[in-house]
Amino acid sequence: MSRRNSSVEPSAFAHPEDLRSHSRRARAEVEFEEQAVLGALFGDFDANLVHLENRLGVFISARGNKVVIEGTDDDVARTRAVLQAMHQKLLTGQELDTGMIESIIAMSNEPTLDGIVSKDPEQAPQVMIRTRRKTIVPRSPGQVPYMHQLSRNDIIFALGPAGTGKTYLAVAQAVSQLITGSVQRLILSRPAVEAGEKIGFLPGDMKEKVDPFLRPLYDALNDCMPPEQVERHIASGVIEIAPIAFMRGRTLADAFVILDEAQNTTREQMKMFLTRFGQNSRMVICGDPRQVDIPGGDAMSGLADAVHKLEGVEGIAVSRFTAADVVRHPIVGRIVEAYEGPVE
Questions:
Q1: Which of 85, 93, 86 is nearest to 43 (CA)?
Q2: Which one of 5, 210, 252, 330 counts the least CB within 10 Å of its CB?
């Protein structure tokens, strides 16, 4: 494993402005017993440690299985917690990429971090979703209560910008419940073409017309189940992916039902969808209230209307995400934050 020159004391690189003389300096040493994962923990040429230095304002040196952190009290404590969380994720078989590291950093000021990653390496994370292909744990503060809601509530509204994991986690929970037999089928839906479902001009049969608009749901499914199993379940009807118009007149029992891009439903469509709820079912309605594309621009979003009417009703939960919960590339969160303004 290649490393930086760790024989030089990290404080030698300190700039006077970075020493934060107004804060008490601290030094902490972290020792990792599981040396097999240290290469992935530190990164090529210690890239992960350098990333933490730049993001958290500390100085880090690595010698063998020991890491020394220098900085202010708060920064050292935060970096130590982030490193331990990164180490625990590697021990549970998860990949450690820049997105994951950024998510851990974002959560490092939250009281949820210790609850997500156990101090005991023998224990798995306390909040997780198991699927055929992976075990999924929260990657942002907002995902923690959302994952609890997915396992407990009958109807969940997930509101927030793209990239926060709203739909992905809902699909993962649906797959998990299908595997355990808690539900007998999955029904995934979204409005097609700006909620107006004007798809007649597109080539092909009905499936070929609507598939491009449902592709994100296919992608999430294929990430949680082997693709051949997904295709087999679709062919047998265990998994159904269809535009919201196909839900009319049905009762969806023993099913996990997900509506994506729900901000593009009209009030009538949303009422129709919600009243399809049947015995032993769960519904998740995902959308971004700031990204309404209903044709004409005058119709009120069915998502906003439903949340206004139903928030606080027993059995119904609302989860709200912000730019801080974006788990794609860090710049996506900054883009979302720059575009966000007061909701009218």
A1: 86
A2: 5
Helix (H, G, I), strand (E, B) or coil at 282: strand
d(CA 36, CA 39): 7
* Whether the predicted model's global pTM rises above the 0.70 cut: no
Token duo for residue 99: 């997105």
Using CA atoms, how far apart are residues 79 and 292, in angstroms rounded to an integer?
39
What pLDDT digit, counting tens, does each position of 204-222 carry?
Answer: 555 565 566 677 788 888 8
Beta strands in the chain (DSSP E): 25-31, 59-63, 66-72, 129-130, 135-136, 155-159, 185-190, 239-243, 255-259, 282-287, 316-320
Sheet holding 282-287: strands in order across?
Answer: 239-243, 185-190, 255-259, 282-287, 155-159, 316-320
Q: For strands 282-287 and 255-259, give the pairing.
A: parallel
266 secondary structure, DSSP code:
B
